[in-house]
Write a structure and sequence with these properties.
The complex is a heterodimer of chains A (331) and B (236).
Chain A: H1 2-46, H2 49-54, H3 58-119, H4 124-155, E1 163-167, H5 168-182, E2 190-194, E3 199-203, H6 204-220, E4 228-234, E5 238-245, H7 279-289, E6 293-297, E7 305-312, H8 316-322
Parallel strand pairs in A: 2-4
Antiparallel strand pairs in A: 1-3, 4-5, 5-7, 6-7
Helix pairs in contact in A: 1-3, 3-4, 5-6, 6-7
Chain B: H1 3-7, E1 10-14, H2 18-30, E2 34-38, H3 41-50, E3 55-59, H4 67-77, E4 83-87, H5 92-100, E5 105-108, H6 113-136, E6 139-142, E7 145-148, E8 153-156, E9 159-162, H7 165-176, E10 181-183, H8 184-192, H9 200-214, E11 224-227, E12 231-234
Classes of the chains: A alpha+beta (331), B alpha/beta (236).
Chain lengths: 331, 236
């Protein structure tokens, strides 16, 4: 932390110095031109009108100024780029700290239960409880590792997807309920409404990741009894899935940033501080890869969050165009 | 002192990772301790204010108030409360910050169950030993300093400050062994009740802080002197 601040101040000083040097050169340049010009004019006037003709032309003067300005602009650009890099580094460091925490927590829990089982006489009933807790931790580790690997392949634009045609509402409902079960939510917490009645082309595993992340966020960022509503709506070319919760919402100035990689909201009132800052970034990338769009909105802090996901409706002729074989899935 | 006396010690466990908290609660209860589990910073402070505890096991990354803030709150009210910080962070700065705010010990996740239990036992034993010796002789004066081992308030000249419980224990130990060389190993074993191979730097960190408190010139100590390749010695 200290070192980072130091390097920023250091860069700033260098930048200001460079600008001063540039300004000095510019002033010298102008001074030199003006001085010479005056001499030439004076001498020219005194000796012969022909010499005036040979006086330094405006061209090198203007050219010099243009070059110097170019230098200064490139300096500004380099400085800006450096600043972005420094900010990114800070985010990355933060990410590493968060990932370390997210990896170590389930790991320490698993280790603790294994050591407990190894060193104590644990009654059978408790044993079973411990196994379930350990499996949950292993699942958490698996999800984290997957999302890190996912990010790596996203950054390289290497998508290895398994697209198939599904019935929109049925499949999404099923996926959301699976996510809910994974996070031990009661079915009654989730309500569905609306009707899409169409087919969509999707990679089931990555769409599951999308809803895992959304459900996980809803749980993390809610203070009272959680309610999640999922609304389906069909437009001419797109199906709209609206995922909303009654959580603490998002402050207006943060809405734009939440899909950025590593971005996390820090707020005293937000009860959960855990996470990697990758969740919503992954959501957006996956939806993009489905040729869809995802938008977030919130009435403000304390008023819940709404995610609107738009996915293109799958139409028959596309399949024949691409020559896909019949892989219609009915769930 | 028999372990039975420690059995009924009350421990405040502050951990928001549910799975880990349940496992810790199970183990501490199995050891005979009475455990109260707080799942976030707010609960931790509420429980601490409303009840008496013998020791606190404290996570750092917590909702509402983090472990550092809780440690500070605890120290203000109860300077002698032993605090064991439990954390996934391994950076030196975190460690230093934790110790400065008055954590007495620091364990990084993932940890070994046996080590955790040993440290807790050691901390509780120390607390009991300390309480016993302090009753006999609560105030000690040397140079222009004065230490009250009961409320951990100190005076150096006109400057008043507060020691953390481990700082006080080390001072007490050094003073009890006045003019004798105390090795780091000895301090680790007797004050921390810890395996000396684990962390000799912890001792050095504490000595540096004690010198800042009591020496006129901490880089040229008069009272807490280093004995080359042996340890430390308290002299007046």
């Amino acid at each position: 932390m200290l070192r980072r601040r130091h390097s920023f101040a250091y860069n700033l000083v260098i930048f200001i110095l460079a600008q001063l040097v540039w300004l000095a050169v510019l002033l010298l340049w102008i001074y030199w031109y003006v001085k010479n010009n005056i001499i030439f004019e004076q001498v020219g006037e005194n000796i012969s009108p022909q010499i005036v003709y040979d006086a330094p032309s405006v061209f090198p003067f203007v050219g010099g100024i243009v070059l110097l300005t170019g230098l200064s602009v490139s300096l500004v650009l380099i400085f800006r780029h450096l600043n972005i890099q420094i900010k990114l580094n800070a985010l990355y460091d933060n990410f590493i700290a968060n990932v370390t925490h997210e990896l170590k927590s389930p790991l320490s829990s698993i280790q603790l239960y294994l050591e407990t089982l190894n060193s104590r006489d644990v009654p059978d009933e408790k044993k079973k409880e411990f196994y379930i807790l350990m499996m949950r931790d292993a699942e958490r580790l698996k999800n984290l590792v997957n999302s890190i690997l996912e990010i790596a392949s996203m950054d390289k634009k290497k998508f290895n997807r398994d697209f198939e045609v599904y019935k929109a509402d049925e499949t999404i409902k099923k996926i959301v309920l699976e996510s809910a079960e994974q996070f031990q939510l009661k079915e009654s917490v989730i309500r569905f409404s609306g009707d899409a009645g169409c087919d969509i082309l999707l990679d089931r595993n990555s769409i599951k990741t999308v809803f895992d992340n959304l459900v996980d966020n809803s749980i993390k960022y809610s203070v009272s009894a959680l309610e999640i509503t999922i609304k389906f709506k069909r437009n001419t070319k797109k199906v709209e899935i609206e995922f909303s919760d009654n959580g603490i919402g998002i402050p207006h100035d943060e809405i734009k940033k939440i899909f950025q990689k590593f971005h996390r909201i820090y707020d005293k009132d937000i009860p959960n501080v855990k996470g990697t800052g990758l969740g919503l970034y992954v959501v957006r990338e996956i939806i993009k890869n489905h040729k869809g769009k995802v938008l977030a909105s919130s009435e403000g802090k304390g008023k819940g969050t709404k995610f609107k996901i738009e996915l293109p409706i799958y139409v028959e002729k596309k399949r024949s165009l691409k020559g896909n074989k019949k892989d219609f899935k009915n769930e | 002192m028999s372990d039975e006396q420690l059995d009924k010690s009350k421990i405040l466990l502050v951990e928001d990772e549910e799975n880990l908290a349940l496992g810790l609660e199970y183990n501490l209860t199995a050891e005979g301790y009475k455990v109260s589990l707080a799942k976030d910073g707010r609960e931790a402070i509420k429980y601490f204010d409303e009840n008496e505890f013998d020791l606190i096991v404290l996570d750092i990354m917590l909702p509402y108030f983090n472990g550092f803030e809780i440690a500070k709150h605890v120290r203000e009210k109860h300077p002698q409360m032993p605090i064991l910080m439990l954390t996934a962070r391994t950076q030196v700065e975190d460690r230093v910050k934790g110790l400065e705010l008055g954590a007495d010990d620091y364990l990084t996740k993932p940890f070994h169950l046996k080590e955790l239990l040993l440290r807790i036992k050691g901390m509780l034993k120390r607390k009991k030993w300390y309480q016993k010796v302090v009753i006999e002789n609560p105030i000690y004066k040397f140079g222009n300093s004065e230490i009250n081992f009961e409320n951990l308030k100190c005076l150096k000249g006109k400057k008043e400050f507060q020691l953390t419980s481990y700082e006080a224990m080390i001072m007490k130990y050094l003073i009890e062994n006045k003019d004798k060389v105390v090795t780091r190993k000895e301090l680790l074993e007797n004050v921390w009740n810890m395996n000396p191979e684990v962390e000799t730097r912890t001792v050095d960190n504490f000595i540096v802080r004690l010198r800042k408190h009591f020496e006129d010139d901490p880089s040229n100590p008069k009272y807490i002197v280093s004995v080359r390749s042996a340890g430390y010695m308290f002299q007046v």
